[in-house]
Write a structure and sequence with these properties.
Largest sheet: 7 strands, mixed
CATH architecture of the largest domain: Alpha-Beta Barrel
Number of strands: 16
Helix content: 25-40%
Order of helices and strands: HEEEEEHHEHEEEHEHEHEHEHHHHHHEEE
Structural class: alpha/beta
Number of domains: 2
CATH class of the largest domain: Alpha Beta
């Protein structure tokens, strides 16, 4: 009986192995390479074990391979959003203020995160960098659930809790200084900074997010930032810095961060400093419609757009990030993120430049360029398709009708 059981288990393992080795062939009418801004005709993409095995015209189709016909489509690598908040949702229809939303039970945040992750993936975002406002490391839980295959969602590089001078981005109530500690770690001394980085990494963070200057005038100096960067680097993590003012951005650049988040106050001189230092701008350049819907003051969108003009003028390195917090029944987080294309088109960026910002350049910032960001042998099979040409009109990304992540199809063109 034991021998029969062992034999049956062996057969099951072999069957599972064969199923796992199933080859999928994608017939791509046009295969877009964002790095070069070109599209190759009639390419075959062989996918096996979640990765791209081969790419080219006239490749032999292996016997028994599953064939996906995208011969009438433009095929390209999955998109990146380098500034997301999956566990924070503002739904104006619900009648809750942002602070009331933040105080929702953790279970509510997790349900919102599951919904947001799914709509991001369906919109074509196969990799995201989640930069905080996830109470009590719920971002790590969401990431792990996606990785385990329990729920659909993009590959997540998450930040855990945001590290900030005392008070951070919120005006605290006397007697309740702990009110926002689910989302922030207040760190003012070097020992507190070191502990904050280590605590984040211990609980699953893969990138460290800091706030350059908080409410009340407290800010991190360049030496403070450098200390945090070095502590994070010792564990292989990079640092993203939320910067509102030009001074905060300069301190962050001098301290060696990987990216400046937002940076609406950055001058042309500071943007040039950033460019020379190889620091990437994740501008979260709000279009007016989204800014208004999200409840921001009328001056915010123009301020971001003017900084985007300066950044594009000097050739500052950029990666796409949305920072949208909205989700409605009729419009998911992914669709809102794609609204941010508006300002990049408006400022005069060519479609190929925008595509690089959303794929290869973003992959380098996140540190996954050897695993994701291109359709190439050995890289993860993160592949999307659209019926229109994104090199002619980047608005074609709003029409994504096929999504594959790690070799698994999550959205199929009908």
């Amino acid at each position: 009986m034991k021998k029969l059981l062992c034999f049956a288990l062996l057969l099951l393992c072999l069957a599972a192995s064969e199923a796992g080795a199933q080859v999928t062939v994608i017939r791509a009418g046009r295969l877009v390479d964002p790095e070069t801004g070109t599209a190759a005709r009639d390419q075959l993409i062989l996918v096996e074990a979640g990765k791209v095995k081969a790419v080219g015209a006239g490749l032999p189709v292996p016997a028994g391979a599953a064939v996906i016909d995208l011969s009438g489509s433009y095929v390209l690598p999955g998109l990146f959003d380098c500034h997301t908040h999956m566990l924070t949702t503002w739904d104006p229809a619900a009648g809750l203020s942002p602070s009331q939303e933040a105080m929702q039970p953790l279970g509510v945040h997790m349900i919102q995160g599951v919904l947001n992750a799914r709509t991001m993936l369906e919109a074509g975002f196969t990799t995201i960098r989640d930069v905080g406002n996830a109470p009590e490391y719920t971002d790590t839980a969401l990431r792990d659930a996606i990785n385990a295959g329990w729920i659909p969602g993009p590959t997540m590089v998450n930040a855990g809790k945001i590290i900030t001078p005392f008070g951070g981005q919120n005006r605290l109530r006397p007697g309740r200084p702990d009110l926002f500690r689910e989302e922030y770690i207040y760190a003012d001394t070097r020992d507190e900074m070191r502990r904050a980085v280590r605590e984040n990494l211990h609980y699953g963070a893969r990138v460290i997010k800091i706030v350059g200057g908080g409410i009340g005038g407290y800010r991190y100096t360049a030496d403070d930032v450098r200390f945090i960067v070095e502590e994070a680097a010792a564990a292989g993590a990079r640092v993203a810095a939320h910067c509102d003012s030009d001074l905060d951005a300069r301190n962050a650049i001098a301290g060696g961060v990987a990216s400046i988040e937002h940076g609406p106050g950055m001058t042309e001189e500071t943007l040039l400093l950033m460019k020379r230092a190889g620091v990437v701008l994740v501008g979260t350049d709000f279009p007016e419609g989204v800014a208004k819907e999200q409840g921001y003051r009328p001056t915010l969108a123009p301020r971001f757009y003017e900084r985007l003009q300066r950044a594009y003028k000097v050739g500052a390195p950029m990666a796409f990030g949305s920072d949208v917090l909205l989700t409605r029944r009729e419009k998911g987080r992914g669709a809102y993120a794609l609204d941010f294309l508006e300002n990049y088109v408006r400022v005069g960026m060519r479609p190929a430049e925008i595509l690089r910002m959303m794929t290869t350049d973003a992959a380098r910032l996140v540190g996954v360029e050897k695993q994701r960001g291109r359709v190439a042998p050995g890289l993860a099979a993160d592949i999307i398709a659209t019926p229109a040409d994104p090199l002619a009109d980047v608005g074609a990304l709003r029409q994504v009708n096929f999504v594959m992540k790690d070799g698994k199809v999550f959205k199929q063109a009908r």
